[in-house]
Records
---
Amino acid sequence: MDYKPNYPIYLQVADFICERLLKDEWRNGDKLPALKDLAVTTSVNPNTVIKAIGFLVDNNILSTQRGVGYFLTDNARTTTLDLKRRQFIQEVLPEVFASMHLLGLGPDDLTRIYKERHAAPSAPAGSNGNEPG
């Protein structure tokens, strides 16, 4: 993992876990890998993984089964989306809006740029979609 400066590592590990869930690599109810395996995967101390897991337990994304391990809750995906959206609105957007103001960009510019970047791939030149394959 490439860690960001000025952002606690345990939260970045929590983000790693949430990202796996949001990308459907892990699903509600799935058992997490062992703490040691997560520590190796994320290249952090196991204590940092434990702190990240505690954060996710506190936010009802993970639950623990004593002696068995940690599991994504039955509503982990919805809870994660709510948490990540709140974080985005409170932490990321204020900086984006400040930059937009300084650069003279407005909501219409942002909408246009978003649409350009997320446009469906165009059909090959000369193809109208009705020709036999």
Note: The chain has a mean pLDDT of 90.
---
Amino acid sequence: MIKKCLFPVAGYGTRFLPATKSMPKEMLPVVNKPLVQYGVEEAIAAGMDQMAMVTGRGKRAITDHFDISYELEHQIAGTSKEIYLDSIRGVLDQASFTMTRQREMKGLGHAILTGETLIGNEPFGVILSDDLCLNDGESVLQQMVNLYKQFRCSIVAIQEVPKEEVYKYGVISGEALKDGLYRVDDMVEKPSVEEAPSNLAIIGRYILTPDIFDIIRDTAPGKGGEVQLTDALLKQAKNGCVMAYKFEGKRFDCGSVDGFVEATNYVYENIYKHSIN
């Protein structure tokens, strides 16, 4: 039903400087796999096989990662090291990749709009690679696809956060339809504690309907002078329907050093060590 997933990967990753001065933040490895590959694998698990990347200057490593490296393949062919390429070979066999550039950093809404030419007039997933989501069962995006089949509207993933941290996120309020599922009636981008309508924070997983592109086009710059996806989604919610889903699974904020280290430790102890034994 939903075949395309959009990856806004043009950001600078300033919180990881100087490492990200010449290396895309999305290529930071959690143990032995870059963040963006975890996201692509999640999209594939949700039934999506067309990956649309909105990149920027200095992001060529992402394009190269999702391509064949003939020299490397030749050098390790037939050796014990060849097994280390299995995961990326699997990704390349199951998905196609298209790229376009966001020439100016004007916010997440602008990045989504930049990807319109790659998506077209159909619903699509969005993954922000900074948010690493891990599950024993269905991936977060798969859970959201299942909901889309029922509601056929835009869906955002949400998580309860400490009240004092709401300023880092887009925050929603809405009517609870059942445990963990809300029909959104308000959204605020990075509110103060006093302004926040709840402590339900949007994290980097979305299912969006294609009318969002026209809404973004008509959305003025908001918080920080950027075109905010949150503002466009609020318009969509007021004029139609946007659902918010409290997902099942673990989420690590790998856009922060603390979250990145936490994710690395978790993956090493719970996934990587078991894969090599």
Note: Residues 4-271 form a domain with the Spore Coat Polysaccharide Biosynthesis Protein SpsA; Chain A fold (CATH 3.90.550.10).
---
Amino acid sequence: MSETSYEPNIVAFCCMHCAYAAADLAGSSRLQYPPFMKIIALPCTGRTDLGHLLRAFEDGADGVLVAGCLEGRCHYQVGNLYAKQRVNRIADLLKQIGLAPERVRMINISAGMGAKFAELANEFARDIQALGPTGLRKAAAGDAANAA
């Protein structure tokens, strides 16, 4: 597989009030963002925990994006601040196990920022493509085959 044909597996945990709405706006505006990005809507990014983020990598994600409300504008007051702390902790853990901490990122946008969502999603996808696969996808698939 050549580097240009590599499509990373990216999971995006999105706040339904802002980031998910921005992704929807980007789509309805026909703005392009990676079709291989799997978006998961959450009531608030504060609902993500270390387990959710690690599980995404364990299940073969090459990158994880957490997209929440603008700082200071969280619908649940401080949920996005908690999410940011968790993202930083996961980045530290990735570094400890030999993966690039840049594989996880937090962005903050409002519902009306569809173009910005597309821009940031494309930027993240390019960064993950440049890093290449984590190598965990093969291991996760092998573990599943062995369990059967």
Note: The chain has one domain: 7-141.
---
Amino acid sequence: MKFNILTIFPHILDSFFSESILKRAIDKKLIKINTVNIRDFTNDKHKTVDDTPCGGGAGMIMKVEPIYKALQKTKKNRKNRIVLLTPAGKQFNQNIAKKYSKLNQITFICGRYEGIDARVENFIDEKISIGPYILNGGEIAAATIIEAVSRLIPRILGNIKSIEEESFSANQPFELEYPQYTKPEIFKVGNKKYRVPKILLSGNHKKIKEWRIKKAKKHK
């Protein structure tokens, strides 16, 4: 799986991809992160990627030409998806993550400033949002989606049951995670004792499963 990230800040996510599971996946060549600097596709000495909005208004708008040229430099293949990250896009969820995990390549366009020239939408497959709020740019959204998708790719997670059993992955998509505990059995703070529920120590897997289903919070 190859992830292309079109951005004007090509090093903004370096530390994120150089740690933990994603780093191991990159080292094992299970995924590839290709950061594309949109400024490299400008024509002036100042590498200008934005301009004032037509019709007036506050802020600056990212230009269509350098983004289009950057897109042309990303190699296409049969299972490719070009995604514009925007608060106005479709809400990203686990079902979309599963769909994306079957692709060979995803290209993310990360906006900045007041937005992107709407003509860019002629060259994308879909618009995606990670939530009903506004960020300074699309890079954090790209990182979020890459992590959600990568962990669904075979061999990236060590234990496949982690995927099969976790939230939203079963046939009950509206259930959130049930409470989880680990050792010690009793955690003491002053005179207060916080205990692991006895049912989880019983060894009765049928009862434990029933308890977990009961305790799972319903998604709202």
Note: The mean pLDDT is 90.
